[in-house]
Amino acid sequence: MLCSKTKTSNYYHPLPHTLEHGEAKQNRPNTKYYLPNNMKKIDYLLVGQGLAGTWLAYYLLQAGQKVLVVDEHSPVSASNIASGIVNPITGRWLVKSWMVDEILPIAKTAHQELEQFLDTRFWYNANIVWRINDQQAYNNFIRRSGMEGYRNYVADVTTTPLVSGFKTCLGYAAINQSAYVQTAHLIQTYRQFLLAQNLLLPHAFNHKDLQILPKQNGVQWQTIQAKKIIFCEGYKGMFNPYFSDLPFTPAKGEILIIEAPDLDLKGQIVKGNGFILPHVKPNQYWVGSSYITNRHDENTTETEKQNLIKRLNQMLDVPYKIIQHVAGVRPATENRRPFLGLHPSIPQIGIFNGLGTKGVSLSPYFAKEMCEHLLVDAPLNTAVNIAQYAL
Ligand SMILES: Cc1cc2nc3c(=O)[nH]c(=O)nc-3n(C[C@H](O)[C@H](O)[C@H](O)COP(=O)(O)OP(=O)(O)OC[C@H]3O[C@@H](n4cnc5c(N)ncnc54)[C@H](O)[C@@H]3O)c2cc1C
Protein backbone atom coordinates (compact mmCIF):
# COMPACT_ATOMS: atom_id res chain seq x y z
CA MET A 1 0.00 0.00 0.00
CA LEU A 2 1.13 3.53 -0.74
CA CYS A 3 1.90 5.59 2.29
CA SER A 4 2.11 9.31 2.61
CA LYS A 5 3.58 11.48 5.29
CA THR A 6 0.77 13.85 6.28
CA LYS A 7 1.60 17.49 6.82
CA THR A 8 0.41 17.36 10.42
CA SER A 9 2.08 14.17 11.54
CA ASN A 10 5.47 12.55 11.56
CA TYR A 11 3.69 9.27 11.07
CA TYR A 12 2.97 7.46 7.92
CA HIS A 13 -0.69 7.08 7.13
CA PRO A 14 -2.02 5.40 4.03
CA LEU A 15 -3.26 7.59 1.25
CA PRO A 16 -7.03 7.60 1.19
CA HIS A 17 -8.06 4.22 -0.11
CA THR A 18 -11.61 3.37 -0.96
CA LEU A 19 -13.32 0.06 -0.96
CA GLU A 20 -14.29 0.36 -4.57
CA HIS A 21 -12.56 1.60 -7.67
CA GLY A 22 -13.58 2.90 -11.08
CA GLU A 23 -17.20 2.55 -12.07
CA ALA A 24 -18.25 1.07 -8.72
CA LYS A 25 -17.75 4.55 -7.29
CA GLN A 26 -20.34 6.04 -9.66
CA ASN A 27 -22.85 3.41 -8.57
CA ARG A 28 -22.35 4.12 -4.92
CA PRO A 29 -25.71 4.20 -3.14
CA ASN A 30 -26.74 7.49 -1.65
CA THR A 31 -25.57 6.62 1.84
CA LYS A 32 -22.44 7.48 3.73
CA TYR A 33 -21.31 3.90 3.49
CA TYR A 34 -21.40 1.08 1.05
CA LEU A 35 -19.95 -2.32 0.47
CA PRO A 36 -18.30 -3.22 -2.80
CA ASN A 37 -20.27 -5.50 -5.12
CA ASN A 38 -17.29 -7.71 -5.71
CA MET A 39 -15.10 -9.31 -3.06
CA LYS A 40 -12.69 -6.86 -1.45
CA LYS A 41 -9.57 -8.10 0.30
CA ILE A 42 -8.26 -6.24 3.29
CA ASP A 43 -5.82 -6.98 6.10
CA TYR A 44 -7.84 -6.22 9.21
CA LEU A 45 -11.54 -5.95 9.88
CA LEU A 46 -12.14 -4.24 13.22
CA VAL A 47 -15.48 -4.43 15.00
CA GLY A 48 -16.10 -1.46 17.29
CA GLN A 49 -14.70 2.05 17.27
CA GLY A 50 -14.55 3.10 20.89
CA LEU A 51 -11.12 3.90 22.35
CA ALA A 52 -9.91 0.34 21.68
CA GLY A 53 -10.94 0.24 18.01
CA THR A 54 -9.81 3.82 17.39
CA TRP A 55 -6.27 3.31 18.66
CA LEU A 56 -5.88 -0.08 17.03
CA ALA A 57 -7.09 1.31 13.69
CA TYR A 58 -4.71 4.24 14.09
CA TYR A 59 -1.63 2.06 14.62
CA LEU A 60 -2.56 -0.48 11.95
CA LEU A 61 -3.11 2.30 9.41
CA GLN A 62 0.18 3.86 10.43
CA ALA A 63 1.82 0.55 9.65
CA GLY A 64 0.33 0.65 6.16
CA GLN A 65 -2.29 -2.04 6.70
CA LYS A 66 -5.62 -2.13 4.87
CA VAL A 67 -8.19 -1.67 7.57
CA LEU A 68 -11.96 -1.49 7.68
CA VAL A 69 -13.87 -0.64 10.85
CA VAL A 70 -17.48 -1.63 11.45
CA ASP A 71 -19.17 0.28 14.24
CA GLU A 72 -22.80 0.83 15.09
CA HIS A 73 -22.71 4.24 16.71
CA SER A 74 -23.79 4.19 20.34
CA PRO A 75 -24.13 7.62 21.99
CA VAL A 76 -23.83 5.94 25.39
CA SER A 77 -20.84 3.73 24.70
CA ALA A 78 -18.27 3.89 27.50
CA SER A 79 -15.98 5.96 25.28
CA ASN A 80 -18.76 8.42 24.53
CA ILE A 81 -19.75 9.11 28.12
CA ALA A 82 -16.45 8.67 30.03
CA SER A 83 -14.92 11.52 31.99
CA GLY A 84 -11.64 10.55 30.38
CA ILE A 85 -9.54 11.04 33.50
CA VAL A 86 -5.95 9.87 33.46
CA ASN A 87 -5.29 9.20 37.11
CA PRO A 88 -1.84 7.93 38.10
CA ILE A 89 -2.90 7.28 41.72
CA THR A 90 -5.93 5.24 42.62
CA GLY A 91 -8.06 4.38 45.59
CA ARG A 92 -8.20 5.43 49.19
CA TRP A 93 -4.73 3.99 49.84
CA LEU A 94 -3.27 6.11 47.07
CA VAL A 95 -1.56 3.32 45.20
CA LYS A 96 0.06 3.90 41.83
CA SER A 97 -2.07 2.68 38.91
CA TRP A 98 -0.85 -0.50 37.25
CA MET A 99 2.25 0.14 35.03
CA VAL A 100 1.68 3.87 35.31
CA ASP A 101 5.33 4.92 35.00
CA GLU A 102 5.53 3.14 31.65
CA ILE A 103 2.03 3.78 30.35
CA LEU A 104 1.54 7.45 31.21
CA PRO A 105 4.27 8.98 29.01
CA ILE A 106 3.10 6.86 26.07
CA ALA A 107 -0.53 7.87 26.60
CA LYS A 108 0.43 11.53 26.62
CA THR A 109 2.65 11.38 23.54
CA ALA A 110 0.16 9.25 21.61
CA HIS A 111 -2.72 11.61 22.31
CA GLN A 112 -0.64 14.60 21.31
CA GLU A 113 0.31 12.88 18.05
CA LEU A 114 -3.31 12.01 17.32
CA GLU A 115 -4.31 15.60 18.10
CA GLN A 116 -1.79 16.79 15.55
CA PHE A 117 -2.94 14.26 13.00
CA LEU A 118 -6.60 15.22 13.39
CA ASP A 119 -5.81 18.89 13.93
CA THR A 120 -7.90 19.14 17.07
CA ARG A 121 -7.55 19.02 20.85
CA PHE A 122 -8.81 16.48 23.37
CA TRP A 123 -5.96 16.01 25.91
CA TYR A 124 -5.93 18.46 28.84
CA ASN A 125 -3.23 18.37 31.51
CA ALA A 126 -5.00 18.88 34.82
CA ASN A 127 -4.18 18.14 38.45
CA ILE A 128 -6.64 16.05 40.39
CA VAL A 129 -7.46 18.01 43.51
CA TRP A 130 -8.52 15.70 46.33
CA ARG A 131 -10.82 17.13 48.96
CA ILE A 132 -9.62 15.48 52.15
CA ASN A 133 -12.38 14.94 54.65
CA ASP A 134 -10.90 12.72 57.34
CA GLN A 135 -7.70 12.38 59.29
CA GLN A 136 -6.82 8.96 57.87
CA ALA A 137 -6.88 10.24 54.29
CA TYR A 138 -4.88 13.29 55.42
CA ASN A 139 -2.20 11.03 56.92
CA ASN A 140 -2.15 8.83 53.81
CA PHE A 141 -1.40 11.82 51.66
CA ILE A 142 1.37 13.04 53.92
CA ARG A 143 2.93 9.55 53.94
CA ARG A 144 2.68 9.09 50.17
CA SER A 145 3.95 12.54 49.24
CA GLY A 146 7.21 11.73 51.00
CA MET A 147 7.62 8.25 49.50
CA GLU A 148 10.12 7.32 46.82
CA GLY A 149 8.30 6.70 43.53
CA TYR A 150 5.33 8.81 44.59
CA ARG A 151 6.88 12.27 44.90
CA ASN A 152 6.30 12.90 41.18
CA TYR A 153 2.62 12.27 41.57
CA VAL A 154 1.47 13.28 45.05
CA ALA A 155 1.90 16.91 46.08
CA ASP A 156 2.00 18.21 49.66
CA VAL A 157 -1.25 18.55 51.56
CA THR A 158 -2.50 22.10 52.01
CA THR A 159 -5.37 23.73 53.83
CA THR A 160 -5.60 26.51 51.24
CA PRO A 161 -8.58 25.82 48.94
CA LEU A 162 -7.30 24.93 45.47
CA VAL A 163 -10.70 25.42 43.82
CA SER A 164 -13.69 27.65 44.56
CA GLY A 165 -17.40 26.94 44.80
CA PHE A 166 -16.96 24.04 47.23
CA LYS A 167 -17.81 23.52 50.89
CA THR A 168 -14.84 23.59 53.26
CA CYS A 169 -12.95 20.42 54.07
CA LEU A 170 -9.98 19.31 56.15
CA GLY A 171 -7.40 19.79 53.43
CA TYR A 172 -6.51 19.51 49.75
CA ALA A 173 -3.89 17.51 47.92
CA ALA A 174 -3.12 17.56 44.25
CA ILE A 175 -2.24 14.55 42.14
CA ASN A 176 0.22 15.77 39.54
CA GLN A 177 0.79 14.39 36.04
CA SER A 178 -2.90 13.68 35.66
CA ALA A 179 -5.06 14.79 32.77
CA TYR A 180 -8.43 14.37 31.17
CA VAL A 181 -9.28 13.51 27.60
CA GLN A 182 -12.49 14.50 25.87
CA THR A 183 -13.01 10.94 24.73
CA ALA A 184 -16.26 11.55 22.86
CA HIS A 185 -14.55 14.25 20.81
CA LEU A 186 -11.55 11.98 20.16
CA ILE A 187 -13.56 9.06 18.84
CA GLN A 188 -16.01 11.23 16.92
CA THR A 189 -13.22 13.14 15.19
CA TYR A 190 -11.45 9.90 14.29
CA ARG A 191 -14.77 8.48 13.08
CA GLN A 192 -15.13 11.45 10.71
CA PHE A 193 -11.62 10.78 9.43
CA LEU A 194 -12.40 7.09 8.85
CA LEU A 195 -15.74 7.89 7.17
CA ALA A 196 -14.08 10.42 4.90
CA GLN A 197 -11.58 7.74 3.81
CA ASN A 198 -14.31 5.10 3.40
CA LEU A 199 -12.68 3.08 6.13
CA LEU A 200 -15.71 2.84 8.42
CA LEU A 201 -19.09 1.23 7.98
CA PRO A 202 -21.67 2.51 10.48
CA HIS A 203 -23.33 -0.90 10.68
CA ALA A 204 -24.17 -3.36 13.41
CA PHE A 205 -21.98 -6.43 13.00
CA ASN A 206 -23.84 -9.69 13.32
CA HIS A 207 -21.51 -12.51 14.36
CA LYS A 208 -23.70 -15.01 12.51
CA ASP A 209 -22.62 -13.42 9.23
CA LEU A 210 -18.95 -14.15 9.86
CA GLN A 211 -17.49 -17.00 7.85
CA ILE A 212 -14.28 -18.57 9.05
CA LEU A 213 -12.22 -19.49 5.99
CA PRO A 214 -9.24 -21.86 5.92
CA LYS A 215 -6.53 -20.30 8.12
CA GLN A 216 -4.43 -18.71 5.37
CA ASN A 217 -7.52 -17.08 3.82
CA GLY A 218 -8.73 -15.41 6.97
CA VAL A 219 -12.41 -14.58 7.39
CA GLN A 220 -15.24 -13.34 5.26
CA TRP A 221 -17.96 -10.88 6.23
CA GLN A 222 -20.41 -9.89 3.53
CA THR A 223 -18.22 -8.94 0.55
CA ILE A 224 -15.14 -8.30 2.66
CA GLN A 225 -12.38 -10.84 3.00
CA ALA A 226 -9.94 -10.02 5.80
CA LYS A 227 -6.78 -11.75 6.93
CA LYS A 228 -7.98 -11.25 10.46
CA ILE A 229 -10.93 -9.80 12.34
CA ILE A 230 -10.29 -8.08 15.67
CA PHE A 231 -13.18 -7.48 18.03
CA CYS A 232 -13.09 -4.20 19.98
CA GLU A 233 -16.70 -4.25 21.13
CA GLY A 234 -16.42 -2.91 24.66
CA TYR A 235 -18.68 -4.64 27.17
CA LYS A 236 -20.69 -6.17 24.31
CA GLY A 237 -17.68 -8.41 23.81
CA MET A 238 -19.14 -10.58 26.57
CA PHE A 239 -21.83 -11.67 24.10
CA ASN A 240 -19.33 -12.42 21.33
CA PRO A 241 -19.68 -16.16 20.63
CA TYR A 242 -15.89 -16.56 20.27
CA PHE A 243 -14.92 -14.74 23.46
CA SER A 244 -17.90 -15.03 25.81
CA ASP A 245 -15.87 -17.34 28.11
CA LEU A 246 -13.46 -14.54 29.00
CA PRO A 247 -14.00 -13.28 32.57
CA PHE A 248 -15.76 -9.99 31.80
CA THR A 249 -17.18 -8.20 34.85
CA PRO A 250 -18.97 -5.22 33.28
CA ALA A 251 -19.50 -2.21 35.51
CA LYS A 252 -22.33 0.16 34.83
CA GLY A 253 -21.82 3.86 35.53
CA GLU A 254 -24.34 6.68 35.67
CA ILE A 255 -23.23 10.28 35.32
CA LEU A 256 -24.60 13.82 35.33
CA ILE A 257 -23.66 16.81 33.24
CA ILE A 258 -24.35 19.98 35.21
CA GLU A 259 -24.19 23.68 34.55
CA ALA A 260 -22.74 25.76 37.40
CA PRO A 261 -21.64 29.28 36.39
CA ASP A 262 -20.25 30.09 39.88
CA LEU A 263 -18.00 27.05 40.07
CA ASP A 264 -14.29 27.58 39.38
CA LEU A 265 -12.16 24.46 39.03
CA LYS A 266 -9.27 26.48 37.57
CA GLY A 267 -9.03 23.86 34.85
CA GLN A 268 -8.53 21.06 37.35
CA ILE A 269 -10.36 17.87 38.25
CA VAL A 270 -11.87 17.65 41.73
CA LYS A 271 -12.12 14.37 43.61
CA GLY A 272 -14.41 14.22 46.61
CA ASN A 273 -17.42 11.93 46.74
CA GLY A 274 -16.85 11.26 43.06
CA PHE A 275 -15.23 13.38 40.37
CA ILE A 276 -16.14 16.79 38.96
CA LEU A 277 -14.32 18.10 35.91
CA PRO A 278 -14.79 20.53 33.06
CA HIS A 279 -17.08 19.30 30.31
CA VAL A 280 -17.13 20.44 26.71
CA LYS A 281 -19.03 23.76 27.04
CA PRO A 282 -18.10 26.66 29.35
CA ASN A 283 -19.69 26.38 32.81
CA GLN A 284 -20.60 22.75 32.20
CA TYR A 285 -19.16 19.93 34.30
CA TRP A 286 -19.05 16.13 34.20
CA VAL A 287 -20.09 14.61 37.53
CA GLY A 288 -19.83 10.97 38.44
CA SER A 289 -19.96 8.26 38.66
CA SER A 290 -21.57 5.19 40.06
CA TYR A 291 -19.83 1.81 39.73
CA ILE A 292 -22.32 -1.02 39.66
CA THR A 293 -20.71 -4.36 39.02
CA ASN A 294 -22.16 -6.99 36.78
CA ARG A 295 -24.81 -4.70 35.36
CA HIS A 296 -24.84 -4.26 31.63
CA ASP A 297 -27.83 -2.15 30.74
CA GLU A 298 -27.62 1.45 29.66
CA ASN A 299 -30.78 2.66 31.42
CA THR A 300 -30.61 5.59 33.81
CA THR A 301 -32.22 5.10 37.20
CA GLU A 302 -33.79 7.58 39.59
CA THR A 303 -31.97 5.91 42.51
CA GLU A 304 -28.52 6.54 41.05
CA LYS A 305 -29.48 10.05 39.99
CA GLN A 306 -30.47 10.86 43.58
CA ASN A 307 -27.23 9.27 44.79
CA LEU A 308 -25.16 11.47 42.49
CA ILE A 309 -27.12 14.58 43.56
CA LYS A 310 -26.61 13.72 47.23
CA ARG A 311 -22.87 13.34 46.75
CA LEU A 312 -22.70 16.54 44.73
CA ASN A 313 -24.61 18.49 47.40
CA GLN A 314 -22.10 17.32 49.99
CA MET A 315 -19.36 19.04 47.98
CA LEU A 316 -20.77 22.03 46.13
CA ASP A 317 -21.53 25.38 47.67
CA VAL A 318 -22.95 27.00 44.52
CA PRO A 319 -26.20 26.53 42.59
CA TYR A 320 -26.23 24.16 39.62
CA LYS A 321 -28.61 22.82 37.03
CA ILE A 322 -28.67 19.24 35.72
CA ILE A 323 -28.33 19.22 31.94
CA GLN A 324 -28.02 15.50 31.26
CA HIS A 325 -28.17 12.14 33.05
CA VAL A 326 -26.77 9.13 31.19
CA ALA A 327 -25.61 5.57 31.85
CA GLY A 328 -23.01 3.42 30.15
CA VAL A 329 -21.08 0.22 30.79
CA ARG A 330 -17.35 -0.15 31.40
CA PRO A 331 -15.77 -3.23 29.80
CA ALA A 332 -14.23 -4.31 33.09
CA THR A 333 -12.61 -7.68 33.75
CA GLU A 334 -12.24 -9.94 36.74
CA ASN A 335 -8.53 -9.25 37.29
CA ARG A 336 -8.73 -5.63 36.06
CA ARG A 337 -6.43 -6.31 33.13
CA PRO A 338 -7.26 -5.88 29.43
CA PHE A 339 -7.87 -8.78 27.04
CA LEU A 340 -5.50 -9.00 24.09
CA GLY A 341 -4.66 -11.70 21.62
CA LEU A 342 -5.80 -14.14 19.01
CA HIS A 343 -8.25 -16.95 19.58
CA PRO A 344 -6.27 -20.12 20.48
CA SER A 345 -8.04 -22.36 17.96
CA ILE A 346 -9.15 -19.75 15.37
CA PRO A 347 -6.14 -17.43 14.96
CA GLN A 348 -7.93 -15.41 12.27
CA ILE A 349 -9.98 -13.92 15.11
CA GLY A 350 -8.65 -11.62 17.81
CA ILE A 351 -9.75 -9.38 20.61
CA PHE A 352 -8.70 -6.04 22.10
CA ASN A 353 -10.98 -5.33 25.03
CA GLY A 354 -11.26 -5.19 28.82
CA LEU A 355 -10.02 -1.61 29.26
CA GLY A 356 -12.19 -1.26 32.36
CA THR A 357 -11.94 2.04 34.21
CA LYS A 358 -8.63 3.03 32.60
CA GLY A 359 -9.43 3.08 28.90
CA VAL A 360 -7.75 6.42 28.25
CA SER A 361 -4.34 5.58 29.65
CA LEU A 362 -4.29 1.91 28.63
CA SER A 363 -5.66 2.11 25.08
CA PRO A 364 -2.71 3.67 23.18
CA TYR A 365 -0.12 1.51 24.95
CA PHE A 366 -1.95 -1.78 24.44
CA ALA A 367 -3.22 -0.94 20.95
CA LYS A 368 0.43 -0.52 19.99
CA GLU A 369 1.28 -3.82 21.68
CA MET A 370 -1.60 -5.58 19.90
CA CYS A 371 -0.54 -4.06 16.59
CA GLU A 372 3.03 -5.32 16.99
CA HIS A 373 1.70 -8.72 18.00
CA LEU A 374 -0.40 -8.87 14.83
CA LEU A 375 2.28 -7.59 12.49
CA VAL A 376 5.51 -9.12 13.77
CA ASP A 377 4.28 -11.63 16.33
CA ALA A 378 5.75 -9.57 19.19
CA PRO A 379 4.97 -11.21 22.53
CA LEU A 380 2.08 -9.92 24.60
CA ASN A 381 2.38 -8.97 28.26
CA THR A 382 1.33 -12.15 30.07
CA ALA A 383 -1.10 -10.20 32.28
CA VAL A 384 -3.19 -9.22 29.26
CA ASN A 385 -2.65 -12.20 26.98
CA ILE A 386 -5.89 -14.17 26.56
CA ALA A 387 -3.79 -17.33 26.24
CA GLN A 388 -4.09 -17.54 30.05
CA TYR A 389 -7.83 -18.30 29.75
CA ALA A 390 -9.54 -21.48 28.58
CA LEU A 391 -11.50 -20.65 25.43
C1 LIG B 1 -19.30 6.34 33.42
C2 LIG B 1 -17.94 5.98 32.91
C3 LIG B 1 -16.85 6.75 33.28
C4 LIG B 1 -15.58 6.42 32.83
N1 LIG B 1 -14.52 7.22 33.16
C5 LIG B 1 -13.28 6.91 32.73
C6 LIG B 1 -12.19 7.74 33.05
O1 LIG B 1 -12.33 8.76 33.71
N2 LIG B 1 -10.95 7.39 32.60
C7 LIG B 1 -10.76 6.27 31.85
O2 LIG B 1 -9.63 6.00 31.45
N3 LIG B 1 -11.78 5.45 31.51
C8 LIG B 1 -13.04 5.76 31.95
N4 LIG B 1 -14.08 4.94 31.64
C9 LIG B 1 -13.79 3.69 30.95
C10 LIG B 1 -13.61 3.90 29.46
O3 LIG B 1 -14.69 4.63 29.00
C11 LIG B 1 -13.51 2.55 28.79
O4 LIG B 1 -12.43 1.81 29.31
C12 LIG B 1 -13.30 2.66 27.28
O5 LIG B 1 -14.07 3.69 26.74
C13 LIG B 1 -13.63 1.35 26.61
O6 LIG B 1 -13.45 1.50 25.25
P1 LIG B 1 -13.84 0.32 24.25
O7 LIG B 1 -13.50 0.79 22.91
O8 LIG B 1 -13.26 -0.96 24.73
O9 LIG B 1 -15.42 0.14 24.43
P2 LIG B 1 -16.65 1.09 23.99
O10 LIG B 1 -16.39 2.49 24.29
O11 LIG B 1 -17.85 0.46 24.60
O12 LIG B 1 -16.71 0.95 22.42
C14 LIG B 1 -17.16 -0.21 21.77
C15 LIG B 1 -17.71 0.17 20.41
O13 LIG B 1 -18.04 -1.02 19.72
C16 LIG B 1 -19.31 -0.87 19.12
N5 LIG B 1 -19.87 -2.21 18.96
C17 LIG B 1 -20.01 -3.17 19.91
N6 LIG B 1 -20.57 -4.27 19.38
C18 LIG B 1 -20.77 -4.01 18.07
C19 LIG B 1 -21.30 -4.76 16.97
N7 LIG B 1 -21.74 -6.02 17.10
N8 LIG B 1 -21.37 -4.16 15.75
C20 LIG B 1 -20.91 -2.89 15.56
N9 LIG B 1 -20.40 -2.15 16.57
C21 LIG B 1 -20.33 -2.70 17.79
C22 LIG B 1 -20.07 0.01 20.11
O14 LIG B 1 -21.18 0.64 19.49
C23 LIG B 1 -18.99 1.00 20.51
O15 LIG B 1 -18.92 2.09 19.62
C24 LIG B 1 -15.39 5.27 32.02
C25 LIG B 1 -16.50 4.53 31.64
C26 LIG B 1 -17.75 4.87 32.07
C27 LIG B 1 -18.94 4.06 31.62
Would you give an account of this structure?
The structure is a single chain. With 391 residues, the chain is of the alpha+beta class. The chain folds into 2 domains: 17-29 and 36-78 and 184-248 and 335-388, FAD/NAD(P)-binding domain; 127-177 and 251-330, D-Amino Acid Oxidase, subunit A, domain 2 (D-Amino Acid Oxidase, Chain A, domain 2, 2-Layer Sandwich), CATH 3.30.9.10. It is 25% helix and 26% strand. The chain contains 8 helices and 23 strands. It has helices at residues 23-26, 51-62, 78-81, 100-118, 135-145, 183-196, 302-315, 359-376; strands spanning 3-5, 12-14, 40-47, 67-70, 85-86, 89-90, 95-96, 123-125, 128-132, 171-175, 179-181, 200-201, 210-212, 219-221, 224-231, 251-259, 269-272, 274-278, 284-288, 292-293, 321-330, 339-342, 349-353. Strands 3, 4, 12, 13, 14, 15, 22 and 23 form an 8-stranded mixed β-sheet that branches. Strands 9, 10, 16, 17, 18, 19, 20 and 21 form an 8-stranded mixed β-sheet that branches. A hairpin with a 5-residue loop joins strand 18 and strand 19. The protein binds flavin-adenine dinucleotide. Flavin-adenine dinucleotide binds next to helix 2, helix 3, strand 16, strand 21 and helix 8.
